[in-house]
């Protein structure tokens, strides 16, 4: 994929929350692929999502996704990412066991301030060193994210 722009293609129904994005989630046992969108862009997502995009003219070959290589969710964990709307300069792909690969793209943006599922999954990684070890998650990928409490009396 050298010389191409590679995107971890996350789907969201709430783009207005992307300012609070702390990471992306992938299903560790999920099957993903690197699919050609055109001559320069490659999206990493599930084959089902790539097929749906191909029918929307987002495939180098119309209506036929072209997979350059297959990847597992484990391959994605730890990827350093840049999200155009996030405050953090670098985000990481982290494991989440409840990601559905038959919805969206199988890659999920994480905004713990707006999603209880995201909050709990991130807290599990923060508070359970054994979980980080199991999935090869480095401390610096999760420990800097502190919850900002909101005081209802101010």
From TrEMBL:
Keywords: Aminoacyl-tRNA synthetase, ATP-binding, Ligase, Nucleotide-binding, Protein biosynthesis. It comes from the Eukaryota. One of its GO terms (biological process) is leucyl-tRNA aminoacylation. GO terms for molecular function: aminoacyl-tRNA deacylase activity; ATP binding; leucine-tRNA ligase activity. This is Uncharacterized protein. It comes from Panicum hallii var. hallii. The lineage of its organism: Eukaryota, Viridiplantae, Streptophyta, Embryophyta, Tracheophyta.
């Amino acid at each position: 994929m050298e010389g191409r722009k590679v995107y971890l293609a996350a789907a969201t129904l709430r783009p207005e929350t992307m300012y609070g994005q702390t990471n992306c989630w992938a299903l560790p046992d999920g099957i993903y692929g690197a699919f050609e969108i055109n001559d320069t862009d490659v999206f990493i997502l599930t084959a089902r999502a790539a097929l749906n995009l191909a029918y929307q003219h987002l495939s180098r070959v119309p209506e036929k996704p072209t997979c350059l290589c297959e990847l597992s969710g484990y391959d994605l964990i730890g990827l350093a990412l840049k999200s155009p709307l996030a405050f953090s300069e670098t985000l990481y792909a982290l494991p989440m066991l409840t990601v559905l690969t038959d919805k969206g793209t199988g890659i999920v943006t994480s905004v713990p301030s707006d999603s209880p599922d995201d909050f709990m999954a991130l807290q599990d990684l923060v508070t359970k060193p054994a979980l980080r070890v199991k999935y090869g998650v480095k401390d610096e990928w999760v420990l800097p994210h502190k919850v900002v409490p909101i005081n209802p009396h101010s």
